[in-house]
Design goal:
mainly alpha; abc type-2 transporter like fold; 2 domains; four-stranded mixed β-sheet; 4% strand; elongated
């Protein structure tokens, strides 16, 4: 009971120290609010109210069908123009896209030839240009194929593939971006907060006070872990409920409580990593550089940005020792696919085992660092 009391009181001390650190408080607030919103909406998956000018030199049914396919909210109604006005309008920034349909376009199309349509893109409008060119090409290809098929009366294919998109039917990139950013922020903030807590005590000289108190390194370390882990856990729950579901209107399929259980096991491992880094680094800048060197590979190779199946086999096997790999699988299974405990229990066991190893390693390093300071 005395040990539990020490751990509880030392954890409260960590929370009070964090409360008095405005820089870290601002970082936490930003990481679980604006950073998530920005990650979800910074790069749209489709153009929005993009401006377009069209030079229709064919004036045929085929060209009119193509122009009618550009509709709100993706494109403003295409504005008819001339070749000279098209170039000047692009130079003045009036149009993001200009389309030039050549003469005899429908005639060449029905004759089996391959006519070309010129598309000019204003690349300075990067958010629209990045996705707009591919979107326009898809619209043109779809409308041309439908026109030729109706005109020539092409026979139906004997087999038709019916595609059903599960879990994200509209293929909205913001769904993936928001949830994946919450996962990344949990990892980043847990490492930063625990490492910064140890560095802060060394810089302020309070670590010497702890050395003369009747507390053990195990109690000091566990207090930092539960305090900083609790802050990150509550912040992530807030972000999922009010930022992801409320502000961004992104549905969460699975149980939030089950996700919190997995996040708590993940925090057990990452906060231990933060303690370890705090014993290695001698200042906040060193801690920041060390975290960057470790955090980037963890986020990139854990399957959060690209599927693990697309990585080399050696990388997949090596990353199995990283807690982020199992946490990403667990979080995506719960939040995207609504998985229950019968599906994600292997990831929970892996996180518990990896967290225990990281905790024991960090505790040994922490005891050695305290012995050197004593």
């Amino acid at each position: 009971m005395r040990a539990l009391g020490n751990i509880f009181q030392l954890g409260l001390k960590e929370l009070r120290s964090l409360y008095r650190d405005p820089a870290l408080l601002v970082l936490i607030i930003y990481a679980f609010t604006l950073a998530i919103y920005t990650s979800a909406t910074a790069l749209p998956e489709a153009p929005h109210r993009a401006t377009m000018a069209v030079v229709d030199e064919d004036q045929s049914q085929a060209s009119q069908r193509i122009l009618n396919a550009f509709q709100l909210p993706y494109f403003l109604p295409p504005e008819p123009t001339t070749l000279g006005q098209m170039d000047s309008g692009m130079d003045a920034g009036l149009y993001t896209f200009t389309l030039n349909i050549p003469p005899n376009f429908q005639k060449d199309l029905l004759a089996g030839r391959s006519p070309t349509i010129q598309l000019n893109v204003d690349a300075t409008q990067v958010s629209q240009a990045f996705t707009g060119a591919g979107h326009i090409q898809q619209i043109i290809s779809t409308e041309v194929a439908a026109f030729v098929k109706r005109y020539q009366g092409a026979a139906e294919m004997p087999v038709e593939a019916v595609i059903r998109t599960a879990f994200n039917p509209n293929l909205s990139r913001s769904w993936f971006g928001a949830v994946n950013e919450v996962i990344n922020q949990i990892t980043m903030l847990s490492i930063i907060l625990t490492g910064a807590a140890l560095i802060r005590e060394r810089e302020h000289g309070t670590i010497e006070h702890l050395l003369v108190m009747p507390v053990t390194p195990f109690e000091i370390m566990l207090a930092k872990i539960w305090a900083m882990g609790l802050v990150v856990l509550l912040a992530s729950a807030f972000a999922l409920r009010f930022i992801v579901e409320g502000w961004l209107q992104i549905p969460i399929q699975g149980s939030l409580l089950l996700f919190m259980l997995g996040a708590a096991l993940h925090l057990f491992a990452t906060t231990s990593m933060g303690i370890f880094f705090g014993t290695v680094a001698r200042s906040m800048p060193q801690l920041g550089l060390l975290i960057i060197l470790v955090l980037m590979p963890l986020q990139i190779l854990s399957g959060g940005m690209t599927p693990r199946e697309s990585m080399p086999e050696l990388v997949q096997q090596v990353m199995l020792v990283a807690p982020t790999t199992h946490f990403v699988e667990l979080a995506q299974a719960i939040l995207f696919r609504g998985a229950d405990l019968t599906i994600i229990w292997p990831q929970l066991l892996a996180l518990a085992a990896i967290g225990s190893l990281f905790f024991l390693g960090a505790l040994a390093r922490f005891r050695k660092a305290l012995a050197q300071m004593a």
